[in-house]
Amino acid sequence: MTATLTARWVVLDIEGTLTATSYVHVTLYDYARPRLGPWIDEHPEDPEVVDAVARIKELGGLPADASTVDVVRVLHGWMDADQKIAPLKTLQGLIWQRGYAEGDLTTEFFGDVAPALRSWHESGLRLAVFSSGSVAGQIASFSRTTDGDVTGLFERHFDTVNAGPKREAPSYRAIASALEAEPGDIVFFSDVPAELDGAAADGWQTVGLAREGEPFGDADFGTHRTIRTFDEIKVVPR
C-alpha cells in the first residue's frame, strides 16, 4: 500500500537518492580529478578559486606558498577518502559546471526520479535540494540529465557552505528558516540514516531511500519511513 504524506516543501539529497553513488564516485570524480590542477592554475585571480585554495592549504596543513602540485595532492587524498570538505566541493562544482555546459557530462537519474519530481512540482509542492555537492555543481548537474533540463523544478539549493553539515540538526533549522517554512511542513528524502536523524531532530518529516545495490541499501533506517523507489510513496501539498 502506497503511503501518503502532506507537505509544503520536498527537500532532496542527490547521491544515492536521485543518482547512483557510482555516478558521483566514478564518473564525476574521474572527470574532476585530472582537471583540478589546471583549473587552479588557469584561474589565479578568480576570488572563488583563490579562497578555496587558501582554505585547502589551511585545512591540509600546507604553507601559504605551497605549489599547485601540493594542493592537488591534498585534494586527491580527500577525494580518495570521500571527504565532504567545502573547498574541494567548490572546485569540483566549477569543473563540473563547465563539463555539463560543454556536453561532456550528463546526469543519470534513477528511472523513478524524473516522473516523481515533475508530479510533485505540477501538484504545487515546492522542491529544494540539500547536497554535499556545491550549489553550482547541483544546478549544473540538473541542467543536463537523461531526462532533460530539470533546473526549473527546483526553487532552492543548499550545500554544506550555505546550510552546514548534513548530519547536524542546526543545518536543517537553517534551511527551514531560509524556506520560511515550519519544520513539519518539510519532507526530506535521503539514503543516509544519519542525515535523516539530523532532519528529524529539527522536526522534519523524513523518508529513507534504501535503493538496491547502493551503499545504504541494507542500512538500518530505524524509525524513519523507508522506501526503495519514489513509486512507493505519495506526497501531496498542504
Automatic annotation (TrEMBL):
Q: How is the cofactor bound?
A: Binds 1 Mg(2+) ion per subunit.
Q: Which InterPro entries match?
A: Enolase-ppase_E1, HAD-like_sf, HAD-SF_hydro_IA, HAD_sf
Keyword flag Metal-binding: yes
Q: Which GO terms describe its biological process?
A: L-methionine salvage from methylthioadenosine
State the signal peptide span.
Answer: none
Family named by the database record: Belongs to the HAD-like hydrolase superfamily. MasA/MtnC family.
The record's note on quaternary structure and interaction partners says: Monomer.
Question: What's the protein name?
Answer: Enolase-phosphatase E1
Q: Which gene holds the coding sequence for this protein?
A: mtnC
